[in-house]
Amino acid sequence: MNQNAVLYLVVPCYNEEEVLPETAKQLKQKINTLSEQQKISPKSRIVFVNDGSKDKTWQLIQQYHQEDEIFQGVNLSRNKGHQNALLAGLMTVKDCCDITVSLDADLQDDIDAIDGMVEKYYNGCEIVYGVRNSRETDTFFKKTTAEGYYKIMKLLGADIVFNHADYRLMSRKALEGLEQFEESNLFLRGIVPMIGYQTGEVYYARKERMAGESKYPLKKMLAFAWEGLTSLTVRPIKMITACGALIFIVSIIMLIYSLIRHLTGATITGWTSMMFSIWAIGGLQLLSIGIIGEYIGKVYLESKHRPKYIVQEYLHDEN
């Protein structure tokens, strides 16, 4: 491993003008400290990716770049979502650096964990995951649903790292591996483990957001969770098949039971059970059609081969 690696911090930004000044300050200090300790190269940089922000985020990024070459900027042509913005940043800089660390602009992820990530890279890891050691800062609802989601994903066969989001170190070799994944439906925390290579984990305590509002309200969190589930595994469709087989077996049993009752002369009013069966099976059918339709829709989008993002402008060193 290169013992004086060029590190690029890749930071997706969407309407982050409130936190960006402090974020830029802290990240610059972290890069300078690591450089002074000779843990990384002085050529290391901070790359802000503007994901179609509607506020002054891009103007701030331009200002920082003009004032100090340590700051670089990638401006997407329109809002493409966090995962695409992150991928855009990683793919834009992969040939300029030895390692990247991706993190959110709100700095809830402890930047001191970067030291441990770099150390593990020098010890042979191509990918290092930043993992939360607790969820004490989360509400009871968010903690319960988040941890439940990770467990469900594991149960359904998705290989994801528990309590890990998108705070991770990736070497250039790992980025080249990531580049080979061409799907449009991105869920990076599920795709990255598929790359392989030696991996490591660094544990940290998540902080409160410095300012501004979370870019992931409940609605977006649920949509993101569903995207991840349907992008990584087809087990929900297999569950539909199993459920259908179970209902078929139950229906055969009920048919035999009904015939026996009829032949013995017993009368069955059956209104309640009939109505329940109609509603239950009808609802199950609609749910099943919806899940299958979701997968068909993804196949349709993948077949179009649309670009995941378009870089409008890249602010970087001239040399």
Would you mind describing this structure in some detail?
The chain has 319 residues and is α/β, with parallel strands linked by helices. The chain folds into 2 domains: 7-215 and 308-315, Spore Coat Polysaccharide Biosynthesis Protein SpsA, Chain A; 235-304. It is built from 10 helices and 8 strands. It has helices spanning 20-36, 57-67, 82-93, 113-122, 140-155, 172-179, 188-195, 218-232, 235-263, 271-304; strands at 7-13, 45-50, 71-76, 99-102, 127-132, 164-171, 199-204, 311-315. The chain has an 8-stranded mixed beta sheet with strand order 7-5-6-4-1-2-3-8, sandwiched between helices. The mean pLDDT is 79.
The number of distinct structural domains comes to 2
The multimeric state of the shown protein is single chain
What's the CATH H-level homologous superfamily of the largest domain?
Spore Coat Polysaccharide Biosynthesis Protein SpsA, Chain A
End-to-end distance: 25 Å
* Whole-number mean pLDDT: 79
| Helical percentage | 40-55%
Fold-level CATH name of the largest domain: Spore Coat Polysaccharide Biosynthesis Protein SpsA, Chain A
- Beta-strand portion reads 15-25%
Largest sheet: 8 strands, mixed
Q: CATH first level of the largest domain: which class? A: Alpha Beta
- Radius of gyration computed on alpha carbons: 25 Å
Backbone structural class: alpha/beta
Give the low-confidence spans: none
The succession of helices and strands, N to C, reads EHEHEHEHEHEHHEHHHE
- Which architecture of the largest domain would the CATH scheme give at its second level? Alpha-Beta Complex
How many strands?
Answer: 8
Number of helices: 10
